[in-house]
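Batch job 17 of 40 flagged for manual review because the log was empty.
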Amino acid sequence: MTMHENEWTCSACGAVNQGTDTCAYCGTKREVHPEKGKEDWKKNILLVLACLCVIGIGILASRLLGRNDNEGNTPVSGNVIEPENGEAVGDVGDIMRGVFLDFTVNDAYLTDTYESLKASEGMKLFVANLTIKNNMDRTLPMYDTDFQLAWGDGDDEWALPVTYEYPEKKCGKMFAFEYSIPVGAKYTGEAVYEVPEGYKNFAISFKEYFEDGSEGDLFIVIKECE
């Protein structure tokens, strides 16, 4: 379900409104969408990846090496992954189970072009196809920046979807800047990121944030691209 640019979902009653900053159904004022805790997200994902690098090659490498030991190099998928000690790490095809939602990275790959979008010189496009299921008892508001990408532990080795800075580049099945998922429903879309050439190990992350300002669990899906 994709919302129009000037539509928004009330955080109190779940109603969809248009053309006003006050909910027409319950009177709640519209919450201004922040940068989705960008700096907090960056610190979290970089901290995790940095910790992985400290213990030898790290969990990231060990998971990829273990994957290569599987017959046909096919990762085990379809597992339900729940967080332990504040974080959960899974593979493509796993069901990442959180408080608000389940999400699955169905596929992820590197490419030079996506629909009308072309990667800049020296860059590639990383495309992640995701299915999200609403676990709440009300409509779930979502944003294109809910899923972020990292490929290292450097300050600039992470990215938001290309639509974050350039919403006019939205095409194909890309997530809209803002959309909503009805109670119990699933929504499938794609997040597209621009990344430097030469990298093959990636981490797709989602962090839970609560209405009272507290933080929940961090979910990471690891993908090795050819």
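Reviewer: the log was empty due to a logging misconfiguration, but the result itself is present. The CA atoms of residues 102 and 133 lie 5 Å apart. Unflagging and moving on to job 18.
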